[in-house]
Amino acid sequence: MTEGSDCNLFGVGIEPSIVPSFELTDLDADHRLLELPGDSLLVFSAEGCASCRWARAQLPGMGLPVQRLCWVDAGRNGGLVERYEVFHLPALFLVRNGAFHGRLDAPLRAGPLAQALRAAARRIPEELP
């Protein structure tokens, strides 16, 4: 399949990644988030969620003002889902220099997400949940 083929009319899954992505679990999320410098977009997703699959394909190429994407499989990491109070997927949070800046409530589009990230960065940071 190529970018222009009829099999991939929407370009899903072939965008180049602008930022690195990490997979986090109940076992390593706290340690890794605390030690990572800069802004991490923490994304909770699940295999059976169509919006999550779209987010996984598109977020890496959106050019968001973050240093990395940190993915959590909500179906396999119930401890994190409970602590972050995830009720819908995908769920996005900003972690900056190991501090929690809260949930992002924005459409999955580059402009609104960038605006939500800037607003979250201005919040008073808290400890990770």
Structural overview:
With 129 residues, the chain is of the alpha/beta class. It is built from four helices and five strands. It has helices spanning 29-35, 50-58, 78-83, 110-121; strands at 21-24, 39-45, 68-73, 91-96, 99-104. The chain has a five-stranded mixed β-sheet, sandwiched between helices. The radius of gyration is 15 Å and the shape is globular. The chain starts with 20 loop residues before the first strand and ends in an 8-residue tail after the last helix. 26% of the residues are buried.
The CATH homologous superfamily is called Glutaredoxin
Structural class estimated from helices and strands: alpha/beta
SSE order, as H and E? Answer: EHEHEHEEH
Tell me the CATH topology.
Glutaredoxin
Instruction: Give the uncertain stretches in residue-range form.
Output: 1-15
- The total of helices stands at 4
Using the 3D structure, state the CATH architecture: 3-Layer(aba) Sandwich
Radius of gyration: 15 Å
Q: How far from one another are the termini? A: 42 Å
Principal-axes shape call: globular
β-strand amount: 15-25%
Number of strands: 5
For the report, how would you describe the main beta sheet? 5 strands, mixed
CATH level 1 name: Alpha Beta
- Give the averaged pLDDT, no decimals: 90
Tell me roughly what share of residues is in helical segments.
25-40%
Strand order of the largest sheet: 1-3-2-4-5
When the domains are counted, the total is 1
